[in-house]
Amino acid sequence: MTAARGAHSWPKVTNAREIDSWLIDMDGVLVRENHPIEGANRFLELLRSTDTPFLVLTNNSMFTRRDLSARLKWSGIDVPEDHIWTSALATAVFLDAQRPNGSAFVIGEVGLTTALHEVGYTLSENDPDYVVIGETRNYSFEGITKAIRLVAEGRRFIATNPDPTGPSVEGPLPATGAVAALISKATGKEPYFVGKPNPLMIRSALRELNAHSETTAMVGDRMDTDIVAGLEAGLHTVLVLSGVSDADAALQYPFKPSRVVASVDVLAGELEEAP
Predict the structure, then answer these.
(1) Per-residue CA distances from 166 to 48, 200, 235 (Å)
(2) DSSP classification of residue 22
(3) Per-residue pLDDT averaged across 206-216, rounded?
(4) Which one from 20, 27, 67, 163 is the annotated catalytic residue?
(5) Residues 244, 41: contact at Cβ < 8 Å?
(6) Cα–Cα distance measured from residue 3 to residue 189, given in angstroms and rounded to the nearest whole number
(7) Contacts with 275 (C-beta within 8 Å, 6 or more apart), sequence order
(8) How many CB atoms lie within 10 A of CB 78?
(9) The one catalytic residue among 20, 25, 51, 127
(10) Is 129 a catalytic residue?
(11) pLDDT band at 2 (very low <50, low <70, confident <90, very high)
């Protein structure tokens, strides 16, 4: 079965014109290997021109919204920074709700530290409320050792996302999930993962948009993160076949998306048909 025929075997549950708000994964949906995916800019321009609320989601916690907007623009995708939502932002919102004006020992980059600063958090290795792990290209033995000791002493353990690896031109790189697993192995304590597939990240994005789950769609290319997170948050779910998943692989899961389409170009075509 080819991917195209697999896509046609799924029922069309909801037309794009029936959706009021959109949550859109980044890699595999809008860009692939730093190049725009067919229909991505057309889809985003239609959302902007009709004032349709949307956020582009990523589990990557390394970069700020401004950084990601600039990186996408370099790849040929125009997404304003206020239309981007990251696992770092979701983590900061979660911690602010749990323990306002708290403190954290952080392993991560500016995307995570900036998000925590913006909600009033202090970064400290002296008696912090939390140990927070995110992506970085500079994991240090000293930092990981400090995190292990703090978690072993009873500090609350948070990770921005469970992704074990991240992409690069040379091949996969260790990511948050891998480092969190190292700390868990050393301490016997598991972190609370905020990013996808935790529907908490989806709900935080909905609050950011002031949107309702019943009229919002989650568009992603991964069944095990995007689709399950959207499903558990009560959203319409659209699997695109422009990334890592194909239609045959999607059928192996015990849950299914609302729709499967070749790419966001299909959704753009439906929006163009609107009156």
Answers:
(1) 30, 21, 26
(2) E
(3) 95
(4) 27
(5) no
(6) 41
(7) none
(8) 14
(9) 25
(10) no
(11) very low
The structural architecture, per CATH, of the domain 3-59+196-272 is: 3-Layer(aba) Sandwich (3.40)
Max distance between CA atoms of the chain, in angstroms, equals: 61
Query: What is the residue-wise DSSP string for 164-197?
Result: SEE--SSS-EE-HHHHHHHHHHHHS-PPEE-STT
Q: Is the pLDDT of residue 235 over 80?
A: yes
Asked whether this chain's domains 3-59+196-272 and 99-193 adopt the same fold, the reply is yes
Query: Looking at the domain covering 99-193, what would its CATH class be?
Result: alpha beta
pLDDT of residue 137: 87
Q: Which long-range contacts (CB under 8 A, 24 or more apart) does 226-231 make?
A: 226/25, 226/196, 226/197, 227/253, 227/255, 227/257, 228/197, 228/253, 228/255, 229/196, 229/197, 229/198, 229/199, 229/201, 229/202, 230/23, 230/199, 230/202, 230/257, 231/255, 231/257
How does pLDDT run across 217-230, given as a tens digit for each residue?
Answer: 999 999 999 999 99
Q: What is the pTM of this model?
A: 0.91
- Domain map of the chain by residue range? 3-59+196-272, 99-193
Query: CA 29: distance to chain centroid?
Result: 12
Rounded CA-CA distance 94/249 in Å is: 33
Contact between 202 and 230 (Cβ < 8 Å): yes
Q: Which amino acid appears at position 244 of this protein?
A: V
* pLDDT of res. 12: 53
User: Is 265 designated active site?
Assistant: no
55 forms beta bridges with 23
Structure token pair of residue 23: 């949550």
Q: How far apart are CA 222 and CA 88, in angstroms?
A: 20
Contact 121, 95 (CB under 8 A): yes
